Amino acid sequence: MAAPRDIVRAAAGNEVSYSLSVSPTATFHSPPTGSQGGFVVGSLAMRAAAAAKQLKPFNTEDIKILLLENVNQTGRDILTAQGYQVEFLKTSLPEDQLIEKIRDVHVIGIRSKTKLTPKVLKEAKNLLVIGCFCIGTNQVDLDYAAKHGIAVFNSPFANSRSVAELVIAEIITLARQLGDRSLEMHRGTWNKVSNKCWEIRGKTLGIIGYGHIGSQLSVMAEAMGMTVIYYDIITLMAIGTARQVPTLEALLEEADFVSLHVPETAETQNMISTKHFERMKNGSYLINASRGTVVDIPALIKAMRAGKVAGAALDVYPNEPAANGDYFVNELNTWAEDLRGVNNIILTPHIGGSTEEAQRAIGVEVAEALVRYINQGTTLGSVNLPEVTMRSLTLDEPNHARIIYIHQNVPGVLRKVNEILGDHNVDKQISDSKGDVAYLMADISNVRTEDIKEIRDSLDSLSSRLLTRVLY
Ligand SMILES: NC(=O)C1=CN([C@@H]2O[C@H](COP(=O)(O)OP(=O)(O)OC[C@H]3O[C@@H](n4cnc5c(N)ncnc54)[C@H](O)[C@@H]3O)[C@@H](O)[C@H]2O)C=CC1
Ligand SMILES: O=C(O)C(=O)COP(=O)(O)O
């Protein structure tokens, strides 16, 4: 029998044999746990699918998964309960080690640190799917992944509340200079001060990026008596009495506290730099829990030393250490030591989403998406492929196979695919595209082993093919 990865990913030209030593009705493997549908911490939706046929052209134990960056136990449990081989590491990996490991796996689970660049993904010949156990997906080259038939999933809002709560804490902490007072006490110095310490009631919070986190923050800030304004590139409904302002400059000129909640994109690179600090109110505050590239940190240090900015809280940095215990020094970011010497600055090690609640929820959400994709091929929630789903095949539908054909979105493909499938009974078929990539799923009935091999080989020979999978 060919290695399972060949069956799962079937690189073009590979000689592939199929494990239909018995009929497709009998070859699918029930999850080994005895839990319903194989999902230990399953959501209601997953449990409702208990009678669904598990579509796997492979033995689950042959699926290799690498989980980096201390993915939560909930996610590990779901994946191991499926019988997959799960390797778990607490840290991210240096690029050379990552390349070594990624060659071998079908699935990789990461958080915000692991950079999946074209250089790394080029080596990932067996990779089917990437799970980002976080919100941000800027660390993955989504386009490269899509064009190589690799799906990417994330958790779009399970840690949003945790970030918003951290920012609320930081607003008061900065306004009262709590970080400095606490450090002084730790060093044995009593320093009772009211000069330039403020209540937050009646102050204006300017939120840049009014998405999941920004809007959640808006609600809490208003509840504490703040006035909220926000700037976003799209027009968004204001929550409560918050008000959208038309430009970034308008926000900077009006806000006492500025908090950033934008993704890392080309447009948000150094979005707050010298000229923006100049527009801010004297004695205002800056909070960045989005991405480290969004703020020009040397410019922030200057603005703080000049007294223009009275305090700042940073949770994210352009270069972050790979593991706990690593040093945050100039070798990592040239200005690190200067930053540490500034007054009233809260520096946290990218903990915005690091709560038990958030990490547990993310573990479940992303692991379930991975299992659905591996076993059923459905892409709901994928951030780089079209979202396609079809009712699962059930145990009452024997001799069925599910064809998944990920292909270039060019004219004429469907005609060719349907020529190949035309001799069979296509029960259901769905196709959607996103940019240059399209995803086609078809369930066909009364298939024999030879049919599956023939269909597979024919699809693989099409020039539009990015990836073919056959699940049964
Ligand atoms: N510190 C931490 O641990 C965490 C950090 N994050 C970061 O926070 C970011 C925001 O998260 P969410 O609120 O969930 O994202 P979201 O996608 O719900 O909202 C982002 C908002 O920013 C807006 N936006 C995009 N480009 C912009 C620009 N150039 N100018 C103004 N607005 C712009 C979008 O239109 C959108 O409304 C994530 O992309 C991630 O990088 C997310 C979770 C945890
Ligand atoms: O969810 C995000 O985008 C975050 O920034 C949190 O990242 P983390 O899971 O803590 O590496």
Task: Describe, in short, the structure shown.
By secondary structure, this protein is an alpha/beta fold. It has helices at residues 4-9, 24-27, 44-48, 73-81, 95-102, 118-121, 142-147, 160-175, 178-186, 212-223, 248-254, 274-279, 297-305, 336-340, 356-376, 413-421, 449-460; strands spanning 64-67, 85-88, 107-110, 129-132, 151-153, 204-208, 227-231, 243-244, 257-260, 284-288, 309-314, 345-347, 401-408, 425-434, 437-445, 465-471. Helix 7 links the parallel strand 4 and strand 5.
What does this structure look like?
By secondary structure, the chain is α/β, with parallel strands linked by helices. Helices cover 31% and strands 18% of the residues. It has helices at 4-9, 24-27, 44-48, 73-81, 95-102, 118-121, 142-147, 160-175, 178-186, 212-223, 248-254, 274-279, 297-305, 336-340, 356-376, 413-421, 449-460, and strands at residues 64-67, 85-88, 107-110, 129-132, 151-153, 204-208, 227-231, 243-244, 257-260, 284-288, 309-314, 345-347, 401-408, 425-434, 437-445, 465-471. The longest helix has 21 residues, at 356-376. Bound molecules: 1,4-dihydronicotinamide adenine dinucleotide and 2-oxo-3-(phosphonooxy)propanoic acid. 2-oxo-3-(phosphonooxy)propanoic acid (HPV) binds next to loops. Residues 135-136, 157, 159-160, 163, 208-214, 231-234, 261-265, 267-268, 289-291, 315-316, 350, 352-353 line the site of 1,4-dihydronicotinamide adenine dinucleotide. This is 2-oxoglutarate reductase.
